[in-house]
């Protein structure tokens, strides 16, 4: 599982797979578990560092979309912080037949609970990342981009904090490479 990150002011949140070499594997499952690590940005003698200071086991509340899903992992991209402080992470999982699906997971600090949200309408996509678009302080949308069949990237939109995802808006073609120059 690739780490999924969110930066909020001086805090860094990283959603990771929780692997244990001491705990025996549960037969007939492939559940790895999730762990949220939080750190604070510090400046110690002119050197910027992240001081990791919190670890939380993530156990999202299941809903009608998540019951038949297995292998829930973070998307590996970035998440988003909504206006009310809710953290939204891109996720992927597998259906019983092995097909990949995309969904999102949120953490609402005021409620202190994790919730799996609706999955996107398409299947077979992977490696999702989120971007938040904010028109003003009352209007925000989430966009999820993911690598899909045929080598294209599809974009999905949510106007409800990741609770519901609309079918892909456009397919992005002719985008190639991973250079950060």
From TrEMBL:
UniProt domain Sialidase: residue ranges: 2-180
A Pfam family this chain is assigned to: BNR_3
InterPro entries: Sialidase (IPR011040), Sialidase_sf (IPR036278)
This protein's name: Trans-sialidase, putative
Organism: Trypanosoma cruzi marinkellei
Phylogenetic lineage: Eukaryota, Discoba, Euglenozoa, Kinetoplastea, Metakinetoplastina
